[in-house]
């Protein structure tokens, strides 16, 4: 499919699933789609969509559970109103041109399981409030322009399995007891930052951990021999 999304889709008042991913469609997401209040799944992945994400998206699509808009050319800030979507479980905005900061309002997404905002131009700190997303199983903020230290609370996301914040400008030490709080963590990617200090021996308690990528940082001291890894 080519061209743009027909505005007349807004007349489909009972539509629950809209998937137009992996086409050659371009242009903005029509704001009129916000009138489809029954929409649960919306995928625009891998197109040539441009423009801003609709800033009021969260005020209308109250039943939205899945929003995939990865691999497009969206720019501007991530809408704060996404934090209103109480049913949202999967949010993937990977590989766009988004700027601004990570919305603190994401902390309100109590059912969110998958959050991928990697490979954009997002700056600022990682909000400590993200710890409120207790069901989060996948978190990637990789390949952005994030700065500051990692909030200790980030490692209280006990359900998370892959965790990636590689290729940013993050600094500071890792919490010494980090391994005690991530029982389900399988993959940790934090390469290409400016982390320093020792590598916490407590990672030996993260018994599900299979892979750590910590290259191109400023870590010092010995590698804990107890790490239960398949790759590092």
Automatic annotation (TrEMBL):
Keyword Chaperone: no
Keyword check for NAD: no
Principal subcellular localization: membrane
Signal peptide start and end residues: none
Keyword terms: Cell membrane, Glycoprotein, Leucine-rich repeat, Membrane, Repeat, Signal
Cellular-component GO terms for this entry: plasma membrane
Pfam annotation, one family: LRR_1
InterPro entries per record: Leu-rich_rpt, LRR_dom_sf, RLP29
SUPFAM superfamilies tied to this protein: L domain-like (SSF52058)
Annotated localization: Cell membrane
Protein name, UniProt field: Leucine-rich repeat-containing N-terminal plant-type domain-containing protein
């Amino acid at each position: 499919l080519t061209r743009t999304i027909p505005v007349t889709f807004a007349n489909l008042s009972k539509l629950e699933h809209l998937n137009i991913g992996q086409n050659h469609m371009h242009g903005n997401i029509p704001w009129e789609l916000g009138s489809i209040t029954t929409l649960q799944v919306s995928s625009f992945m891998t197109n040539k969509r441009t423009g801003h994400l609709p800033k009021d998206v969260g005020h209308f699509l109250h039943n939205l559970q899945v929003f995939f808009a990865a691999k497009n050319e969206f720019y501007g800030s991530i809408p704060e109103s996404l934090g209103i979507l109480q049913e949202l479980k999967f949010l993937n905005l990977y590989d766009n041109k988004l700027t601004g900061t990570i919305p603190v309002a994401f902390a309100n997404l109590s059912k969110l399981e998958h959050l991928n905002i990697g490979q954009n131009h997002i700056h600022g700190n990682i909000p400590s409030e993200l710890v409120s997303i207790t069901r989060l199983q996948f978190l990637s903020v990789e390949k952005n322009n994030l700065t500051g230290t990692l909030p200790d609370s980030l490692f209280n996301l006990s359900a998370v399995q892959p965790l990636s914040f590689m290729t940013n400008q993050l600094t500071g030490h890792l919490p010494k007891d980090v391994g005690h709080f991530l029982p389900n963590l399988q993959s940790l990617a934090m390469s290409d930052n400016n982390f320093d200090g020792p590598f916490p021996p407590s990672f030996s308690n993260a018994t599900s951990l299979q892979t750590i990528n910590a290259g191109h940082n400023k870590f010092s001291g010995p590698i804990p021999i107890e790490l239960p890894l398949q790759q590092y």
